[in-house]
Amino acid sequence: MTADNREATRALKIKTGVLTRVRRELAMYSDEVAKETAKLETMKAEGRDPHDVRQQDQVLGESSMMIGDCKTRMENAFNELLAATEEHGEECADSEELAVAKALLDEVEPTLEGA
């Protein structure tokens, strides 16, 4: 493997890792919003202290903001990985990293289209 191939493979591996991490973060924040929403509704139904309800609503708002941030970062990471696969596709044609990157792009693309 030449030095150029190693660099291209390394670039693909890094960009694949970034997209994987951001995708995982988005799933985590989505789960957190669902849990915090349920907790807020329970607190309201139980007639909890208004201050506690406002605090919980603030926690929910912060988690919701993170979802938008993660979607933006995921779209950027997707575009960067897509560009890298196109740029280094020939150099890394037989590499496992290219196959993993393309598979991840195929998995993430429908998520972005729905956003």
Automatic annotation (TrEMBL):
InterPro entries: TBCA, TBCA_sf
Biased composition (Basic and acidic residues): 41-55
Any one GO biological process: post-chaperonin tubulin folding pathway
Entry's localization field: Cytoplasm, Cytoskeleton
Sequence segments annotated as region (Disordered): 41-60
Gene3D superfamilies named in the record: 1.20.58.90
Subunit-structure text: Supercomplex made of cofactors A to E. Cofactors A and D function by capturing and stabilizing tubulin in a quasi-native conformation. Cofactor E binds to the cofactor D-tubulin complex; interaction with cofactor C then causes the release of tubulin polypeptides that are committed to the native state.
Name listed for the protein in its UniProt record: Tubulin-specific chaperone A
Organism: Micromonas pusilla (strain CCMP1545) (Picoplanktonic green alga)
